[in-house]
Amino acid sequence: MMRTDQPAHDDVARRAAESIDETRLLASIETLAAFGARPDGGVNRPALSATDLDARRYLVERAHALGCAVSTDACANLFIRRPGIDDAPPVMTGSHIDTQPSGGKLDGCYGVLAGLECIAALNDAGLSTRRPLDVAIWTNEEGTRFAPGAMGSSAFVEPARMPTYLDAADAGGVTLRAALESHRRTLPELPSRGDAPPAHAFVELHIEQGPQLENADVPLGVVTGIQGVRWYAFHCEGVAAHAGTTPMPMRRDAMTLAVALRASLEEIAVSLGGEHTRVTFGRWSVTPNSINTIPSDVTFSVDFRHPDAHVLDTFDTLVAACARRHGARIAPLFAHTPVRFDCEVLARLDAACRALDAPALRLTSGAFHDAMYLAQHCPTAMLFVPSRDGISHNPAEATDARHLVLGARALAHTLTTLCND
Ligand code: HGY
Ligand code: MN
Ligand code: MN
């Protein structure tokens, strides 16, 4: 099974962790951030955009330089494989590299680059593992170009979803189908995998994107699960008319309706979910969007998060009734139930933190991640590092270098023990 000259599990895992190279990891974060760099230090790299395709090309070249094979699938997920001694179900890690329009350098990217750094560390330490190690790059996790979010990982675990995604279009009318074709033209040499092969485990390293670890002054978070999410679009209709000539009582102003509806929806969310409620009305479109024309159509989004599945289901019922009362149309965009991660993988993460003498806090993720789908496919868990000032989805997103390196070391330790199961 394993090479007899190979020291025991923990020593091997410790050697892998110690071989993480701080300079190489931090440099890779800056190099990837250059693809879609914003003048304010953030990143704008929409899923399967030209900048995303360039970034993918860079990462495929890095993977080949590390001696890895790269494959893809129907949803343009990338899989970077370090071979194992046995052709056993792999251990998987990874995250996403698509960003918010005014995103940071670390959301998703850190997990991908730390995965590649773990491969480089294993190579430097001359360590083989029984199982292969796969670093995945999941397509369209953010869901801001194409809805729903976590599209690539959801299609990986349930390929029957793909046909329902292909006609999803971005704000410019470009469909996912067309974007996938661009990806095929950019990376024509990548072999395409069939449906998802079994995996031994999946571990995703990510920034917390909130304030808990920093407030507790703890460098690592062992993530026990992810709260649930609901995305909706609400459509409010009015009648376009002249801003100067139309008396107020005569107006059917779509924005007046939308503002009243927003207030009702927020009231529902807060009274239903209490202190755990997170409700956001982040994307608005107004037609004709002219200073001196009364809006005829207003569409806005709702992003509702809560750890309690019953609250989420009740929210669905209440907002549908609310839309009817306000004469608005409602379109569900995305829904995922709360997720609890695997105890054995959590125990491996705990062991890695102990091995590195690193304090760790157990917490639930407020943000969703690809791990919420991978948890349906194989034993899954996540590891967090702190976000400075709890900020993310913002160019100011940052994490102390010592935390970035410690997170990568804990990931290397965990992946190595799992790869030698
Ligand atoms: O929206 C989310 O929770 C994730 O950051 N895409
Ligand atoms: Mn993310
Ligand atoms: Mn994000």
TrEMBL record:
Its cofactor is Zn(2+). Zn(2+) 1 binds at residues 96, 107, 206. Residues 225-328 form the Peptidase M20 dimerisation domain. Zn(2+) 2 binds at residues 107, 142, 393. Its EC number is 3.5.1.87. The keyword Hydrolase applies. Pfam families: M20_dimer (PF07687), Peptidase_M20 (PF01546). Keywords: Hydrolase, Metal-binding, Plasmid, Zinc. Binds 2 Zn(2+) ions per subunit. The keyword Hydrolase applies. One of its GO terms (molecular function) is metal ion binding. It is an enzyme of class 3 (hydrolase). Belongs to the peptidase M20 family. NCBIfam families: hydantase (TIGR01879). This is Amidase, hydantoinase/carbamoylase family. It comes from Paraburkholderia phymatum (strain DSM 17167 / CIP 108236 / LMG 21445 / STM815) (Burkholderia phymatum).
